[in-house]
Amino acid sequence: MPMQNSRDIGRLAERLIDASEADETEVSLGSGAERFVRFADSGPTQSADRNWQSVSIRARFQGDDGWREARADCDGSCEARALGALERATILARMAPPNPEARALGGAVDVREQVADEATASFPFEEMAPWVQMATAACTDAGLAPAGLIQCRSAEGRLVNSAGREVACSSSRAGFCLTASSPDFKTSAGFADAIHSRVGDLDAEAVVRRAVSKALAGAQPQNIEPGEYTVVLEPNAVSALLLFASYAGFGAQEVAEESSFLCGREGQQIFPESLQIADDAHNEFHPGCPYDGEGWPRQPVQLVDAGRVGTPVTDSKWAAKLGLPNTGHGLAMPNTSGPIPMNLVLSAGEQSLAELIGGVEHGLLITQFHYTNLIDPKDLLLTGMTRNGTFRIEKGEIGPAVKNLRFTESFVKAFGSITGIGSEREVAGALFEGEVICPALRIENFRFTSSTDF
């Protein structure tokens, strides 16, 4: 999976800036490569080996009433097409309404170097095939139907502007997920996945073993009444809650608009002292891009420290408006969305998953949530459903599977009721965009509002 030559990317950006008529110009260039295989009980069902390039250009004109700006994009890295995007951005910027709050582009900065793992970037189909065979064979032997995805991806990005800023990074990601289901796709299902920056860290056998064991244990689920339960949430369930805090809670715009759960709580301890949540693109476990959509270096931000909530993440606009430092969490400008944390890390605790479960007298083990949605942003009131493995916990032991439940619960209340934090962290996604680094959690009095017949 070859990446675009970084020297060629830099030269294209320089030529576009030289050709621009705008007072300020910003060029963002990206290239990526992906190789993936989807599979089911019949074997591979879809595969792709693809590359892409993109160019995004921001043109800006300064007047007495503020900055007028616009952005235009194009696919590929053809210079003629990129010049066409520059022309469109220029025309649109001249027509745009002035923004008196907009600030001049920043100049040179230093960002931490990040390099993609070459083995992940070049991982071949031939190496994926044994994983597919292992997963399908294990499911067939257990009388289950597999559905899975193996994906290796690499990407490069570069941002250059006319004020002298030039930043770049490259990254890689390897993922393997498997859902093992009963043949009727109704009785039971088990899910497991693994996500790493380096494919060599991925344990495919463990993923298969975990998904199959959950599906077998989930056969013949029992009815269960809704209500409040002590729950042990595995990392994939934790991520479905924590990601909404990044989308709608930890950003400066939400705080300024008084729609964030941080409002009125800044500096207060509303969570247990054991809870530590940071946004850290430089974490060694699964690093993110070291700069934001404006090319500003991403700063580590302690969002929750010993249960006490801190200040939100910012970009250039909201840092200036609120009198806060720019933490480098902006999106590509111009846009109407504020800054968001994109590399959330929930620190590990001291208890194994078995110890978390062992501390539950009567409760539930939750593998995953889906159809999670936001009801009220002020307390981050969320609703969703359990999926792919929900089990009773009785006297510290995992019991029989139960039918799925719908929850309606506040993030603030749930995380304020944490009584145990797992010692092993995972890169965990949800059934929507985003990933976080988190361990399993034990939470008291988690509210389920309705039950299902499946």
Task: Name its key features.
39% strand; single chain; 454 residues; five-stranded mixed barrel; six-stranded antiparallel sheet; PmbA/TldD fold; alpha+beta
In a nutshell, what does this entry contain?
The chain is α+β, with helices and mostly antiparallel strands and 454 residues long. It contains 10 helices and 19 strands. Helix 4 packs parallel to helix 5.
Question: Could you characterize what this model shows?
Answer:
The protein is an alpha+beta fold and 454 residues long. The chain folds into two domains: 6-214, 2-Layer Sandwich (PmbA/TldD fold), CATH 3.30.2290.10; 221-454, no CATH class. It is built from ten helices and 19 strands. It has helices at residues 6-19, 79-95, 118-121, 125-141, 204-217, 235-248, 252-256, 316-322, 353-358, 411-416, and strands at residues 24-40, 43-63, 66-75, 145-161, 166-181, 189-196, 227-233, 277-279, 301-305, 308-309, 344-346, 362-376, 381-394, 397-401, 405-410, 418-421, 426-430, 432-438, 441-451. The protein has a six-stranded antiparallel beta sheet with strand order 3-2-1-4-5-6. The protein has a five-stranded mixed β-barrel with strand order 7-12-13-15-19. Helix 4 (125-141) packs parallel to helix 5 (204-217).
